[in-house]
Amino acid sequence: MAGHDAGTQHQFTGIAKYFNAYTITGRRNCVLATYASLAAIALFFKLKPKKKPAVTEK
Amino acid sequence: MTLSFFDQFMSPTYLGIPLIALALSLPWILYPKPTTRWLNNRLITLQGWFINRFTQQIFQPLSLGGHKWAALLASLMLFLITLNMLGLLPYTFTPTTQLSLNMAFAVPLWLATVIIGMRNQPTHALGHLLPEGTPAPLIPVLIIIETISLFIRPLALGVRLTANLTAGHLLIQLIATAAFVLLPLMPTVAILTAVLLFLLTLLEIAVAMIQAYVFVLLLSLYLQENV
């Protein structure tokens, strides 16, 4: 695209070095992090203990 | 037995014997094999020219690794275009109106392209799930959207072919029935309907060829992303 920098010209520091939307490895890491987060959320809800309703005596 | 407009899409059987295998093997017997002669006859030359031209067209943007798919995609194209065109003959069953057949082509071939991508260049394959330059807050949303669009591809491939052919055949039958029914009642309208039917048939011939081409083209594009 006109005026758009090439991915190789970006100089990232800190966490942006590993997770950014410009370099191919940055994009890959973002994708893997998103999948890992979704898996963690799913696992959390699956392993969460279910509350049993209280038994009331009539 | 009450006939409905959907009877044309029923898988053909004769005395309980399914004829789908015969319907699917028909394209194979229609194409003569090239001989060992240096110069073949006109039909085989034309056939060879078409296959070579088509293969060149499809595989030009692909890298060398993707060229292994040439025989597969060329034969798939020939198969689909023949089934589609034969189905336009009256009272002929069109196997590509069956979703099961189209999904049986789409899902394994799409899955093969994805597995090839993940195996040979996993970074590129995963990186393509996030468009370049996405703003940070949109990253997770866009990854989910791109993943969904990735998995929808085989479904879209199969359903596109099925829906186009089914809709076309249904329209032809409806308009033909209308022209036939209107003939004793309103002959002028019946003639106009017949003209419409003729134009629709021409359109369906184009759709038959285009849909086969689009199916194979999209598969080659998915392969291009992963090779």
TrEMBL record, chain A:
InterPro entries the record matches: ATPMK
Stored Pfam families: ATP_synth_reg
Entry annotated with the keyword Transmembrane: yes
UniProt entry keywords in alphabetical sequence: Membrane, Mitochondrion, Transmembrane, Transmembrane helix
Protein name: ATP synthase membrane subunit k
TM ranges: 26-45
Main location: mitochondrion
GO cellular component, one term: mitochondrial membrane
Organism of derivation: Oreochromis niloticus (Nile tilapia)
TrEMBL record, chain B:
Annotated keywords: ATP synthesis, CF(0), Hydrogen ion transport, Ion transport, Membrane, Mitochondrion, Mitochondrion inner membrane, Transmembrane, Transmembrane helix, Transport
Reactions the enzyme catalyzes: H(+)(in) = H(+)(out)
InterPro entries on file: ATP_synth_F0_asu, ATP_synth_F0_asu_AS, ATP_synth_F0_asu_bact/mt, F0_ATP_A_sf
One cellular component term from this protein's GO annotations in UniProt: mitochondrial inner membrane
Keyword Transmembrane: yes
GO molecular function terms attached to this record: proton-transporting ATP synthase activity, rotational mechanism
Superkingdom, natural source: Eukaryota
Transmembrane residue ranges: 12-31, 69-89, 101-118, 138-159, 171-199, 205-223
Location of the protein in the cell: Mitochondrion inner membrane
Coiled-coil portions: none
Membrane topology summary: Multi-pass membrane protein
Pfam family, one: ATP-synt_A
Keyword Ion transport: yes
Oligomer and partners: Component of the ATP synthase complex composed at least of ATP5F1A/subunit alpha, ATP5F1B/subunit beta, ATP5MC1/subunit c (homooctomer), MT-ATP6/subunit a, MT-ATP8/subunit 8, ATP5ME/subunit e, ATP5MF/subunit f, ATP5MG/subunit g, ATP5MK/subunit k, ATP5MJ/subunit j, ATP5F1C/subunit gamma, ATP5F1D/subunit delta, ATP5F1E/subunit epsilon, ATP5PF/subunit F6, ATP5PB/subunit b, ATP5PD/subunit d, ATP5PO/subunit OSCP.
Family statement: Belongs to the ATPase A chain family.
Protein name in the entry: ATP synthase subunit a
Source species: Oreochromis niloticus (Nile tilapia)
Source organism phylogeny: Eukaryota, Metazoa, Chordata, Craniata, Vertebrata
